[in-house]
Amino acid sequence: MNRRKFVQHTSLTAGSLLIMHNLFAKNKEKVYGYNNMLYTLDTRWSQADASKYPVNDCHEMVQDKQGRIILLTNETKNNILIYDTKGKLLDVWGHEFPGGHGLTLHNENGTEYLYITDTVKHQVYKATMDGKILLTIDAPLDANGIYKKREEFVPTETIIDSNGDIFIADGYGAQYVLQYDQQGKLKNYFGGRGDGDEHLDNAHGICFDTRIDNNMLLVTDRTRNCFKRFTKDGKLLEVIKLPGACVCRPVIQGDHLYAAVLRSPDMNKEGSGFVTILDKNNKVISNIGGSEPTYIDGVLQPMSQTDKIFVHPHDVCVDRDHNLYVAQWASGKVYPYKLKRV
């Protein structure tokens, strides 16, 4: 073999070995999930410097129209951290939300706004994307006497209707879903504590179920391990049972519903969280870090954590490429993890 052919042969062999090595390395990366909803885990996605931009509880995340990932934490050194999808920190703001909990993005005639709930200050805020407060909603002490004092109002989540109406889930308070107009005037409420299916216990999250009908609300009933579908005026339509899963807010993208499972319901099972994914028919099709969904005679069997990749996952953000970002509560002040869709 002459020198030229030898060099070509050696280059091809080295290139083939490199490709094989890369494929082998990729294949070694652990994959989580079931039924083609599969993900690899990146626990070091965030490139934020913890000494400069610390987090406490990472509560919720959204993606804006620019593609940025926005995180809410109850760390008042920087309540809002803004990233690109690769984990680079782009901006921070906010010192006013010691109980920053719920983060909702709403596009109003082409302009995006953030809605923030604060469980310590017992308030809900509408803010510009750079943090200017435009509206504050206080405890609804005029709501026919159902609230006697401001401390009974502990809002955890909001969703905004196309007409500007604001639905607030009082998930750590009196367990009502309250409907306000866009000026912050109370219009209606439903739910509240009680033993009936129409009542709520830890109404942690709320969204419009765009998979089926924009006029339907999905509300979390975390203590009872389920989501409940209501009409906008509060008529109960369906209970979606999720045994073994204390679910946080429902997140819709396309035909799928995603939710962080804070823990399994046994109070001794702290640190037992995972992420669950449902299809359009509300059938669980995948769990990330959790057991394979199993149905017997159409009934979902209790789910549980199988991989110790999360402690207390609190929210899931789904980006345009169907990757997931998971924020965690009481988990050692860790930054969000990224789950890349396989």
From TrEMBL:
Ordered alphabetically, the record's keywords are: Glycoprotein, Repeat, Signal
Q: Mind telling me which InterPro entries this protein's record contains?
A: 6-blade_b-propeller_TolB-like, NHL_repeat
Q: Which domain of life is it from?
A: Bacteria
Which SUPFAM superfamilies did the record assign?
NHL repeat (SSF101898)
- The transmembrane residues are none
NHL repeat residue numbers: 187-233
One Gene Ontology cellular component annotation? extracellular region
Is Transmembrane helix among this UniProt entry's keywords?
Answer: no
* Protein name according to UniProt: 6-bladed beta-propeller
